[in-house]
Amino acid sequence: MENNLHWISFGLEDGKVRWFCTDLSSKFKIENENWFNKNTKSITIYKGFETAENDIKPISEDIYRISINYKTSERKLHNKIYIFVKGELYKQECGNGIKVIRLTKELKQVLEVIEVIQMNKKEELKRLIDNPLKPNAVEWAMDSEDVLSNMNLLSPETKHCIKTIKDHGGAFKQYNDALVAILKRAYKSIANVITPPSIKPRHQVFVAMCFDDERERLYKDVLIPIVQAANYSIVKVNDQEYEGSIIGKIVDDITDSTILIADLTRNRGGVYYELGIAKGLQLCNHPIRTILTCDKAFFDDEKVHFDVQGDNIILYTSDEDYKEKLSRRIQSYKNEMNG
Known about the structure:
Layout: E1 6-11, E2 17-22, E3 27-30, E4 40-51, E5 62-71, E6 77-85, E7 88-93, E8 96-99, H1 105-130, H2 137-150, H3 156-168, H4 173-191, E9 204-208, H5 213-229, E10 233-235, H6 246-255, E11 259-263, H7 269-283, E12 289-295, H8 296-301, E13 314-316, H9 319-337
Parallel strand pairs: 9-10, 9-11, 11-12, 12-13
Antiparallel strand pairs: 1-2, 2-4, 3-4, 4-5, 5-6, 6-7, 7-8
């Protein structure tokens, strides 16, 4: 395959010359002319990755090069080139990349095709992550090797890990866990490129708070009544039974929520972690809203982390104070989301 590789220069907004590597067979030609603009003749999507010039070692995740052939008003054939990388589309002009802000209908269709390509790979990765050592250790390792190879993610360490699992039938847990972690990183790299999972059609509020007796009482006496009164269901990770990774469960629950309430009292790392997931989803245009709360006495004496001190935090002095302020904030967000 190495003999069939081709390197094509491309640029982003920093003006640096970069190299797109592809074997040219990794392409998808859009046949549906109903997707074309009036003068478009053909659209071809090439899949590859960034390398140094004439090198085969990937230095990025999948990149897509989009070639659109069209006829000008003088009836001459021209070519428009776009690069899709890390969730952004760049038009190629004179060696530079210009970020595309407004997508035409044609470009939207192209990105939908890329999303389908990525989703197929994402589903396979999820299957391997959720079913380690199944149907058996050797087949699981071989399937993982195939997927990671297609993504150009087979480092020497990964190859050693996979070989050990195949040779010893998954007898060494540290290697099994290491391969699951590698697969999760690969899954995350795809999640960063495509649109995040759409929110499910249900009203849910996720609560992040420390697990002590006082917070548990507050959760039962204040949060549950307020959230349910607003016609939302409420979920907190330590109130559920689950199988598999707790991190995966947290991410799924936050993704399926319309509001995340983070109580910062006690400055627990897990609360900031869950808040960070929601903030990351917001950067990807997920509609989740965040509400930060904190006991005022703790806030005055201990302070919350510097990164969120400037946020609009609800500071409460009693249960009734918390109920009033939180109810008002939830209703405000609810009105905004209902238009």
